[in-house]
User: Fold these one by one.
Assistant:
Number 1:
Amino acid sequence: MNAHWWSKSLAGIVCGFALALGLAGLLAWAGPGGVNAINKTQLVMWSIAPLWLTALSLVFLFPTGRQAWAWLGGANLVVWSAMLLTRAWAV
Amino acid sequence: MRTDIIRTYKAVHTWTGITTGLLLFVAFYAGALTMFKQTLQRWSEPVSLAVAAPIGADQLIARTLALHPEFAKDFTLHLDGPARLSMKQSRRDTEPMLAIAGAEGDIVVRQDRSSGVDWLVDVVHRTAGLPVDLELGTAITGLAAALYALALISGLIILLPSLVKDLFALRLGKNVKRLWMDAHNLVGLVSLPFHLVMAFSAVVFGWHDLFYDALDQGVYQGRMAAIMRISNPPPPFAGDKTPVRTLDVAAILARSAEIAPGLHPTAIEYRNFGTKAATLRVVGDDPRYLVRGHGFLSLGGTDGAVLNREYLPGQQGTYSAVVSSFFALHFGEFGGDTVRWGYFFLGLSGAFLFYSGNLLWIESRRRPRRGQVEVPSQNRSTRIMAGLSVGVCLGTVAGLSASIVAARWLQGQFLDVNGWSRAVFYLVLVLAVGHALRHGAAPSAPRLLWLAAGATMALPLTSLVLGRTAAPGVDAVALGAGVVLALSARKTARRVARGPIDSVWSAARLEKEGLQS
């Protein structure tokens, strides 16, 4: 098994989870009904698994491990900035 | 698509599949049975609770509370079957206290130790047959489900380039491996939505605590509990112990029918009965909607005011309804019996998917005889995997059938039927795996198939011997399954004796290697 395999898997697990958490957070703060909508926390929690596992599944499409980290890291930067901004604006 | 990407995904598919296939087989086979766990329970315990209650539900509540005031804080009145009360010590209590009316109208209170088979099937499903407690088992199953989601998506990616060409091809030629591969791909692709739902939801069931913790820290700034409380405000008069009469059962059911005409009540859950703080949950089913477990309507105990309809089928808010649909899609709780049968067969086809996946793994590592006189010996890893596949899969089938039969025979014989029927399951499973690993897959496969056939046939035989059955459908399905298993046993025995010698499935090879069992 080549080195990329581990690097990509790790990128999918770590960055993929962070990305899923960030997107779930975006749904929580910016999604319809605002953060306090009835029983919204449950859907926010449920959204993590499919988002994370989709990211983890597709990470092997990157030719190299480095690219996987770079792209997922970049996506995290964008998503988390957006989430933190909407949160700051909402609070 | 580039071939190196396809090659990477083949590796992902192989590794995720082979590491989780056996666990998933157990979870899916037992999961298919959970669709009918109440029916199986009724089959295994036909006599219990069969007496009609001689007193009304309100009388039952009043007399029970007179004897056991500790019930008042939290108890359930069951409306399916004879009226009875149950009280759980905790949310996960599998052996609640039961209060039933005797023939004279006297109240009998005992611990419910009879919830054997439905509980067993459920536990085996959630722990994937591992002998660990439910929480750890569900977490491990959740991990397996995450890898299984990877296996599903990688399998789809591998299949994409040749999708149109290969999808409905079922090449019934000489190449048996090709046939198995075609069947594996066809079943996998056709039931992909079902499998994605199962994979994602099982991950959530196993890891929701972790996800909530991460959300609380990363997203909600530690205020998640407060935000959740907004959705679940405390009921009015919470903690107010002033004695006030709680609504009687007829009034509660009338109120429920008025608010939710489609809900068929199966139980009423009471909190703080007889006080100002009393609350009620009318629990029931409405087959027209995707329901989370059971739907329920929360009412105030003294005035019947609606407290919460977020879990009431058809009257939920959007977010609650979406989450309910995830639960319903996992548990097949919509559309009544049609969907239940559909899920039963989808579950079994899932079990087939993992079994065939293991066979393909073994087959693609086979060392064929190419002209040379000497029969090549097969890899150690494929020998072990073949043994495990046969032992775990057939052991699970035989073990569950045997434990269901045991639950019926042991009824009234021992104090703890629960523990005994679970012990029977593990005994059969461990013996099957041990036998298959020790003697090899080839001689074990037909033997274990016969064992599974026999254990499954024992269900209708038991009903025949005892001269009665509470669920004839169970006997009929078990008879059919037993026949299929017996036919498989005969066919497998033939292959073991006369099949290609350069395979883990040939007994002749074992003789040659001096490993005869």
Number 2:
Amino acid sequence: MDRVYDDKIRLLLVDDEEGFRRTISKRLAKRGMIPVQASDGEECLGILKTTPMDVVVLDVKMPGISGIDTLRLIKQEFENIQVILLTGNVAVSDGIDGIKSGAFDYLTKPVEIDHLVNKIKQAFEIIQLEKEKQKERGYREKLEKKMIDTERLVSLGTMSTGIAHEINNPLAIINESAGFMKQVISSPEMSMFSQKDALLLGIEKIEKSIKRARKITHELLGHVKKQDSQFSQANLKALLYETLGLLKREIKNKQININWEIDPKKNMVWSDPYQLRQVMMNLLSNAIHALGENGSITLSTRETSEDIILEIKDDGIGIPKENLGKIFDPFFTTKPFDEGTGLGLFVAHKILSGLGCKIDVTSTVGKGTCFQIRLPKYDKSNE
Amino acid sequence: MIKIPIKILIVDDEKDFVEMFSLRLKKQGEKVSTAYNGKDALKVLETVPIDVVILDIRMPGMDGIDTLKQIKTLHPIVEVILLTGHGSTETAVEGMKLGAFDYLMKPADFKDINVKLENARKRKDEQEERIRQAEARLLLRRSGDF
């Protein structure tokens, strides 16, 4: 058991006395640790540049770069390496200096081999611990970032619906005013007015712009959640089928294949079917947009202990890595303004977080994109 | 063909909207009344004959849904088209369950408005016609009894 563990320790032994090095190496090897050897500080640093090490056992008194200086250089460049110093019997102060400079510990020569082995193991444990901590820290940071992202999107969602709502009323007034002006100008009394066409042109532009603004506000509002979502048992396959029915024309035009890989046993979720359909609509029309002729969309479900994971996968153009973090942002789009508002995924994300669901995406340029939605499984106790 | 004006009541707290919208409908030949809140709308309905009410859902005081309920209780034959600026189509659908003819989202397309107005008026006419016929049948049966 120990041996397997000890094998993993990458060890470097640095001492100018060849005899000493050889003896220690032999003894360490007997205990399962095979050290790489170096005869001075310079060689040690050279090895470290090319070969990753965990623990360095370092003699303090060496020609050339002193042990303490070597230690400092090691610590500067390789902060994860632990260093155990070997000092002469009389030079305890060297050891203390060493610890101040970041050494793990020091041992005085002559070295008791079991003592050294223990120290190496301890140093290695510290490294493992440190690595765990770093991993955990990284994980936590990632999680926090994701939470901030989600929160940001939720508050953006609330604000955008508020704005859209407030803009619709003035927009309606502009709309009726422009429409009325058009009626007046088109009336028979105005038939002799020479500038009529110019005015009509202007009004036409106003009306076109109203339509454009309306598309944005309506898209933002099309899904506004009432206080109580209507949760019920929802059949994913039936919902997808209905949604695809609404997209029939586009699917036919591009001759898109739909691959159904939905297990009827992993199909029932507990959610708001009306809002889910809106999400599917946005995701499926995106998928269709990403596909050329004869592309495929694959619909599949998976099951975990509590959730159903729905995957909507296309083999279309894919999303470049640098855009992947932005696709859920409002108004982010790569399409021209008359083709996309950049709100589809934003709205989908918003709806899903309102429903307590999660959405994830993976994508490779040229290969396609896959959206995964995690939905709570339906069971009888829901009702 | 001579256009038979639709008798419309517009109810919305946005005065500018009511003003421009009614000008536009009047210009087209409709007969338009206006109100800026639910209470006033009910007052107008007491005194003026109305075919279709165009009713904003979100108003201060008595909101559109409450007004709709009152209208449907007091004047069940009058048709109501709901107008929503705040996208909650669910509220609009709820309104339809309470008897509204249809709904429109602001800013609405004038063509859509006209189609819905025309259909609403038609439904009201047909309903009135059925009532007339039923009354006639009732009268006939009565005279037969005696």
